[in-house]
Design brief:
The protein has 216 residues and is α/β, with parallel strands linked by helices. 40% of the residues lie in helices and 22% in strands.
Length: 216
């Protein structure tokens, strides 16, 4: 079986056997090849870049992963080309790109589950998806190559959350080291950002308040 990085392996743990998956921004399709080997079923993988899909094709051939179906396109534009997809995976992108891809997700009623790994501003991801009829099912922090990654699973529906839940997250594993690093990073930002940028400074201070209160 193909070997994955720790980040991709942890993402794969949020995919159930019954899920019909489209991996948006699949890069070289390593996650999808792994899942197809694990569950012996079809997976859809898409990317904007022809170069990424060329590498994905080579990997599919190398690992005899004929169940991985590649699509070239931007975000949800390929969804109609895929059969009965109910789960989306989006990883390795910034929050702005992710929210842009999911701008119409509220109306895509067939999508019941989202597995998201954003490279930035997970707070904005949570806030956006809660407004668009998804709830936070579970989250974890993964540390790999000196980088912390937050992997989140959202499901269609509504739940109420505290300010702390949305700002910091709902984690199923020990995150104290991650929280400590985030507090230090935010303190550095507060020393750099001019005081005239009141709103930006307020948001950072507010996040640190919750980090310090709930994780010691």
């Amino acid at each position: 079986m193909i070997k994955l990085s720790l980040r991709l392996k942890e993402i794969s743990e949020y995919i159930d056997e019954k899920d019909v998956v489209l991996d948006i921004g699949c890069d070289h399709a390593l996650l999808d090849i792994f899942l197809s080997q694990k569950y012996k079923k079809r997976y859809y993988a898409s990317d904007l870049r022809e170069s990424a899909l060329e590498m994905a094709k080579k990997n599919i051939q190398k690992y005899s992963a004929e169940n991985v179906i590649l699509k070239c396109g931007n975000g949800l534009s390929v969804l109609d080309e895929c059969e009965k997809v109910d789960t989306l995976v989006i990883s390795g992108m910034g929050y702005y790109t992710i929210t842009k891809i999911l701008s119409n997700i509220k109306n895509k009623k067939s999508i019941k589950k989202l597995v998201i790994q954003s490279n930035s501003n997970t707070y904005e991801i949570r806030k956006f998806l809660l407004k668009n009829d998804f709830f936070i099912d579970k989250e974890k922090v993964v540390f790999e190559k000196n980088i912390y990654y937050i992997i989140s699973c959202f499901k269609r529906g509504k739940k109420k959350y505290t300010k702390k839940d949305i700002t910091v997250g709902i984690f199923t594993n020990d995150v104290n080291k991650y929280i400590e690093k985030e507090i230090k990073k935010n303190n550095i930002l507060l020393n750099i950002i001019p005081k005239k940028h009141f709103i930006k400074r307020y948001k950072i201070k507010n996040k640190n308040k919750y980090l310090k209160k709930f994780y010691k």
